[in-house]
Design a protein that fits this description.
- By secondary structure, this protein is an alpha+beta fold.
- It folds into 2 domains: 3-36 and 207-330, no CATH class; 56-202, Protein Transport Mog1p, Chain A.
- Helix content is 41%, strand content 23%.
- It has 13 helices and 16 strands.
- The protein has helices at residues 3-9, 15-20, 24-36, 82-90, 133-141, 185-191, 197-202, 211-222, 245-266, 269-283, 286-292, 297-310, 322-330; strands at 66-70, 77-81, 94-96, 100-105, 111-118, 121-129, 145-146, 150-152, 155-163, 166-173, 176-182, 192-194, 208-209, 243-244, 313-315, 319-321.
- Strand 4 and strand 5 (111-118) form a beta hairpin.
- The longest helix is centred in the last third of the chain and has 22 residues, at 245-266.
- Mean pLDDT is 78; it is low at 1-32 and 39-78.
Length: 332
């Protein structure tokens, strides 16, 4: 049954009943997930868990010394800064034989996620440092069917099934809990291989902005964005960390939009009018148009722009004022 059909068949709920539900924490987690990870339009699928990524934005002010690594594709050199190499040297560097990395989010030593594709098949590999495997196993066991354990890279993975075409596997390696989710996950476990820093970084997709070009990309994104009073361009520096282009765009748009919303909340009539006009311009910007082809950040922003323009509310599980919702929703 499709999600739309399930909703149509569901019992109705009144506004009073909805307001009584304790949804604030769930709403905050969902809003954060929308900000930090694009919802890919090509083949959306139900996700069991939304991974908060506020702590995954790299803030370490490391020296931007460029390290040149020879890539595995055609011998073309790729430039990576010290932070990228630090991540690659710390985390389990795994690739799936015959599959292509198409996305890399929350790219940090502590937590990260990569998406692989092979034709129409898609899988996600994530890592988390200093966490309990038992806790993740208990969480997955609540809404899945346990399958037989499976060997992976010299250890054993716990395998669970959401549906025949959606399984997940959990195991530990080098102080990290790893999770591989996708169709036919038992087969994929056998195709995982550990690779060198050189090969792993070179496998990153073109959508990941290289550290050497991130400042240029940020400046390009800002070209048609009206910056708010007190805007701090330096706060957007990535300090050498690789960034998915969508995530980088979300950071840039959030910095601009949140500044204008703050102006609208605190300003006099003239400042409030200017803020509305600026936010409309943000909605027409090239960076947001590009993001709209991949995910739903623009839709969340539009809700807040309309609420600002009409002095209205933002509808979630319950109506929220702009002041109550914009920081969590937009990633300020």
């Amino acid at each position: 049954m499709s999600l739309d059909e399930a909703v149509r068949r569901a019992a109705p709920i009144t506004d009073d009943e909805l307001d009584a539900l304790m949804l604030d924490a769930v709403e905050a987690e969902l809003r954060e997930a929308i900000v930090t990870r694009p919802v890919r339009r090509r083949a959306p699928r139900r996700r069991r868990r939304l991974v908060p990524a506020a702590g995954a934005l790299v803030a370490a002010a490391l020296a931007a010394t460029i390290v040149f690594l020879s890539g595995s594709g055609g011998g073309t050199d790729r430039a990576w800064a010290a932070q990228a190499v630090r991540v690659a040297e710390a985390v389990p560097r795994l690739l799936i034989d015959g599959w292509t990395v198409t996305r890399a989010d929350q790219f940090d030593v502590g937590t990260g996620e990569m998406q692989f594709e092979n034709g129409v098949r898609r899988a996600e590999l994530s890592w988390r440092r200093d966490q309990s495997l038992a806790g993740w196993v208990r969480d997955r066991g609540k809404s899945t069917r346990a399958l037989a354990d499976h060997a992976v890279l010299g250890t054993t993975a716990r395998v669970f099934e959401y549906s025949p075409r959606d399984q997940t596997a959990l195991w530990t390696m080098d102080g990290y809990v790893l999770e591989l989710r996708g169709p036919g996950v038992e087969e994929l476990l056998g195709r995982l291989r550990a690779v060198s820093v050189d090969v792993w970084l070179s496998a990153m997709p073109a959508s990941v902005v290289r550290p050497g070009s991130s400042d240029r990309v940020i400046d390009e994104m800002l070209v048609d964005l009206p910056v708010p009073p007190g805007f701090d361009r330096a706060a957007l520096d990535t300090h050498g960390a690789p960034r998915d282009r969508y995530q980088l765009g979300a950071r840039v748009v959030a910095a601009v939009s949140c500044g204008w919303i703050k102006t609208w909340l605190e300003g006099a009539a003239r400042e409030r009018t200017a803020a509305v006009q600026a936010l409309r311009a943000v909605e027409r910007s090239a960076v947001l148009k590009a993001m709209n082809r991949e995910g739903h950040y623009g839709e969340v922003l539009h809700q807040h722009v309309e609420a600002v323009a009409t002095d209205g509310t933002v509808v979630g599980g319950k109506a929220l004022t702009v002041a109550e919702s914009y920081k969590d929703a937009l990633g300020c």
